Amino acid sequence: MAQQLSENKIQRLEEAKLAEAAKKPIREILNGKTRYAELWYGTPASMNNALAQLKEILPENEFSIKNKKSKDADGREYYVITIAKRIGGKTVPVVEKPKVAGKKAIPTPALQVDKTSIDYNALSEKFGDALSTQIMHWSNMYKVDPLFIASLIVAEHSGRADTNALDIVGKRLKKNPNFYNNAISGKGDINKESRGLMQITKPTYETITKLLGLGKNAKPYEETVADYALSIRYAARYVAYLQKQLNTQDIDELAAAYNSGPAKVISTKEKNKGIGKLSLEYRQKVKRAYGQLEAEKKRLGGAPPE
After folding, report:
1. In this structure, are 92 and 172 located in the same domain?
2. Which residues are bridge partners to 158 per DSSP?
3. How do the pLDDT tens digits run along the chain, 306 residues long?
4. I want to staple 128 with a disulfide (CB 3.0 to 4.6 A). Which of 165, 174, 241, 284 is the partner?
C-alpha cells in the first residue's frame, strides 16, 4: 500500500508543470534516496507557481515545505523552496545562505531553466552554462527569443567582417562570463556611451528601470551594466518593450530598434515604408549570429521556428 501511494505521488510529479531540474531532487525524496531538497527561483511568481503544485503532490503530514527570500553576496534576490521528509515529527533544518569564497559569492542555481531544451543546449554549446542560464531564464520571463538575445551579444562585440564572431565571442564568455562587463563604446558622451555585455546606454537603463518598476531600489547604472546577469535581464526586458512598441517579433526590425531606438525605426518606416539601411551593418551581424545559432539547433536535433 505504501509503495502504491509513493508511485501515485511520482505519477503526479511527472504530470506537474515543473522544470526537470525541479522534478529530479523531488524524485529522489520520493524514491527514498534523500530526505531533503532545495529549489531555487529568480522571481516570487515562479516560486509561488512551483509551491502551489508541490503542496498538491506532497501531503503536509509527510513533508515539510517552506519558502523564503534571500540575497547573494552581490545583493541579488532569489527565492528558495525547501522540501524535507518528516521523521518523527521533525524536519531537516531550513536552507542555509550560499557559501562565499573570498568577496565573491559562488554562483548559485537561483535561476531554474529547462536544461533539456534545444534552445538551452544550442546556447550552452557556444556560451557555456552560466550565461545560457541567464539568457534562457530572462527570455522566458519576458517572452522574448533567447537566440535573439544571444545574437545581440555577438553583434555588440564583433566587427563587420567577423564571420566567425559567434565562435570568438562565445568562446570568451564560455571561459569567463564577465569578459565584457567593462566594455565601453562611444566613450565621452554619457547619453551615447554604451556599456557592459549588452551595451546599454544611460537613457536606455533609465527606461528599463521604469519598466521594471524598481524606482529607488534599482542599482546605479555603472553597477548594473558591469553585472552580466543584470545586463541580460535589462536587455531582455527592453526587447520585450521593443516588441510591444513596434508590434513585431521580426529580428531585423528589433535589431535596428535595439541599436538605434524604437522612435527611429518608426519614423524611418513611415518615411520609407521599411527600415531601409537603418543600422544595416548591425542588423547583418545580428542575423548572421542568429542564423548560426539556428544551425546549431538543427545540428542538435531541433527544427528552426517557422
Report:
1. no
2. none
3. 445 546 777 788 888 888 777 788 888 888 877 777 788 877 888 888 888 888 888 888 888 888 888 775 556 677 888 888 876 544 444 444 444 333 343 333 457 788 889 999 999 999 999 999 999 999 999 999 999 999 999 999 998 778 899 999 999 999 999 999 999 998 777 778 999 999 999 999 999 999 999 888 889 999 999 999 999 999 999 999 999 999 999 999 999 999 999 999 999 999 988 999 999 999 999 999 999 999 999 998 855 444
4. 174
For residues 79 and 96, what is the distance between their CA atoms, to the nearest angstrom?
Answer: 12
Cell for 148?
535573439
Same domain, 190 and 54: no
Pair 112, 41: CB distance under 8 Å: yes
Pair (182, 76) in one structural domain: no
DSSP bridge partners of 64: 84
Q: What is the CATH number of the domain that holds 36?
A: 3.30.110
Give the predicted TM-score (pTM) of the model: 0.65
**How many independent structural domains does the chain possess?**
2
Q: Tell me if 274 is assigned to some domain.
A: yes
Order of strands, sheet of 63-71, starting from the edge strand that comes earlier in the sequence: 36-41, 77-85, 63-71
Which grid coordinates are listed for 218? 534599482
Q: Which domain holds residue 56?
A: 2-105
Let me know if residue 238 belongs to a domain: yes
Same domain flag for 91 and 134? no
Three cell numbers written together for 127: 556560451
Do 34 and 150 fall within a single domain? no
Burial of 128-147, coded b for 16+ CB within 10 Å and e otherwise, reads bbbbbbbbbbbbbbbebbbb
Residue 111 forms part of a structural domain: no
Decide if 112 is inside a domain: no
Q: Which three cell numbers stand for residue 56?
A: 498538491
